[in-house]
Amino acid sequence: MSSVLQKLITPLAGSPAEPPRNKVTVVGVGQVGMACAISILLRQEGESRLNLVQRNVNVFKAIVPQIVKYSPDCTIIVVSNPVDVLTYVTWKLSGLPKHRVIGSGTNLDSARFRYLMAERLGIHASSFNGWVLGEHGDTSVPVWSGANVAGVNLQSLNPDIGTEGDEEQWTATHKAVVER
């Protein structure tokens, strides 16, 4: 039985490119640079997004009122985990209208999903279309019925894609999205 990749394209190159290495470079040691570096060093591996709630809520209680005090006409974009919970907390703490407090939601999950799916298919990420819905992280849901390459629906090539019966185990790709 042919795989989705075999049905979709014939690889043109011999071996896949070397996977990216996890490396972060912070240029600048001002307040923003140092804050980024410290944040990177303090992320606890294996800690769930929900375990971050109380710690981050305490930080938000200190900074959100100050943001609104000095920038009353601002729009706040929340990217801290767990993003959905903290977006709600930010909205409540800020007193701003709901359209001025925005959470990144599953935008990051969708971007990771597109990248990892494309990598597994051996194509550029911009050639793969797919989305992840729901809450950011562990409870997010990939939309397998909408996953496609150049309009070719992957579910039409593998009706079991994303299910327990999928012999190619495409759900591992979504699992990798959540673990990153």
From TrEMBL:
Keywords: Cytoplasm, NAD, Oxidoreductase. Residues 43-103 form the Lactate/malate dehydrogenase N-terminal domain. Residues 106-157 form the Lactate/malate dehydrogenase C-terminal domain. InterPro entries: L-lactate_DH_AS, Lactate/malate_DH_C, Lactate/malate_DH_N, Lactate_DH/Glyco_Ohase_4_C, NAD(P)-bd_dom_sf. One of its GO terms (biological process) is lactate metabolic process. It is found in: Cytoplasm. The keyword Lipoprotein does not apply. GO terms for cellular component: cytoplasm. PROSITE patterns: L_LDH. Its main location: cytoplasm. GO terms for molecular function: L-lactate dehydrogenase (NAD+) activity. Its EC number is 1.1.1.27. Pathway: Fermentation; pyruvate fermentation to lactate; (S)-lactate from pyruvate: step 1/1. It is an enzyme of class 1 (oxidoreductase). Belongs to the LDH/MDH superfamily. LDH family. This is L-lactate dehydrogenase. The gene is ldhb.
